[in-house]
Amino acid sequence: MPSVKNPNGPSKNRLAARATKAKAQRQKRSQEAKNKISKTDSTRGARPGLLPTSGPRAKLSAKKARKLEKKTGYAMRRRMEAEGEAEMKGES
Fold first, then answer.
1. Reduced 3-state DSSP string for the chain
2. Is residue 65 part of a domain?
C-alpha cells in the first residue's frame, strides 16, 4: 500500500507558518508579562520604555502639553486668589 498524505489536511507550508505565528504570539505575551505592559497598551504600540501612541496613557503632544500648562497656571492663579480672599476675610 503506497504512503499517500491526506489531501484534505493543511500543507507543510501552512503548518510551518501557523507554528511560527503561534511562537511569535507566545513570545510577545511573555514579554508583556515580564515588563508589566497591559494588553491594551501593547496593542496601541507600547513597548518597554515606550508609551502607547493613542489612548489614555499616550504621550502628550507638545501642543497639548503647552495648552495643559496654561490651564494649570490659570487654575493655580484662581486658587491663589480664592485663598487670598479667604485669608483677608479672616483677618477683619
1. CCCCCCCCCCCHHHHHHHHHHHHHHHHHHHHHHHHCCCHHHHHCCCECCECCCCCCCCCCCHHHHHHHHHHHHHHHHHHHHHHHHHHHHHHC
2. yes
